[in-house]
Amino acid sequence: MKKKVRKLLKNKNFIIVCVLVLIGIICLILLKNVLYPSSKASFYGNRLDGIENVEFNKKSKNKILEEINKNEVVTSSKINVHGKIINIIFNVNKDVSIDDAKNIGNNTLNSISDEVKSFYDIQLIITKDDEEGTKVQTETGEEKIKKDFPIMGYKNYNAKEFVW
Predict the structure, then answer these.
(1) More confident residue, 136 or 80
(2) How far apart (Å, rounded) are the C-alpha atoms in residues 163 and 153?
(3) Residue 5, C-beta contacts closer than 8 angstroms, at least 6 positions apart
(4) Could you tell me which CATH number the domain at 51-155 has?
(5) What is the pLDDT of residues 33-44, one digit of tens each?
(6) 137 alpha-carbon distance from chain centroid
(7) Coil, strand or helix: which one is 82?
């Protein structure tokens, strides 16, 4: 038996085949890891590190929604959270100007804690369902209706106020 093993090990073709099979197995394992990463990896990677230390729960959301809904011009509102982005979406009635809508949005920052403002990015999306728009003429002379809404405001976690 020992003689057969020694004879096989001396055979160069056998050694080359063994090395190629070993390399093939290693390549398959690496390919599997690339195509099917482990389920432990988060969708966001490490971008959400520390999110468990910043409390933004249903109570915080309700406080923001209460602040927005205090305005009689707001018809509906909701909040969606995706990772480190808070989307605040609300609809205003047709009598509201762009500046008034922006003021309502800017006032929402007062109801958000400093800790949340310095960790999360905040987006405001303000819509107006029943906006009639204004007629404008294009360069070709045809009339089109221009609508001012929806408008969006964005506040990065480093920023102090919204950019519109």
Answers:
(1) 80
(2) 5
(3) none
(4) 3.30.300
(5) 888 766 555 666
(6) 38
(7) strand
pLDDT at site 149? 85
Sequence ranges of the domains in the chain: 2-35, 51-155
Q: What b/e string do you get for 78-116 counting C-beta neighbours within 10 Å, with b at 16 or more? A: ebeeeebebebbbbbeeebeeeebbebbeebbeebeeeb
Cβ atoms of 127 and 150 within 8 Å: the answer is yes
Q: At which residue do the structure tokens 């390549």 appear? A: 27
Whole-number Å distance between alpha carbons of 125 and 113: 20
One-letter identity of residue 90: F
pLDDT (0 to 100) of residue 17: 83
Rounded to whole angstroms, how far apart are CA atoms 77 and 90?
4
Strand partners, 137: 143
At 131 the pLDDT is 72
Please name which of 50, 35, 128 lies closest in space to residue 84, comparing C-alpha atoms.
50
Task: Give the phi and the psi of residue 107 in degrees, each rounded to 5.
Answer: -70, -20
pTM of the full predicted structure?
Answer: 0.67
